[in-house]
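Bench notes, afternoon.
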Amino acid sequence: MGLKKQFIKSKNKVKVTFQLPAKAADGGKEVKVVGDFNKWSWKTGLLMKVQNNNYVVSKEFPMGQSYQYRYLIDDRDWENDWDADGYELNPYGVDNSVLDTSIQEPIGEPAY
């Protein structure tokens, strides 16, 4: 699984690429990313396409935000992203994946 981020400072956005191995979908026909960014709606979820044995989709998000999300397979089976930025316990007693679009400043050499 994978979560890739590309910071687009000129637009104050982060292009996020979600990736789920096809084998994690366990034969599912349709996989979407749903989360608090779309009120957990299957209907408006981000439809993933198969590329190189992975389900993949990209979306731009505002910088400096945090979102909970999960992969929803065939509108019935849930899967987390184990490369997420973190996890939050949901009201159903399981974890949601967390996406953090804050810029992480690189750690440089100490100034003397």
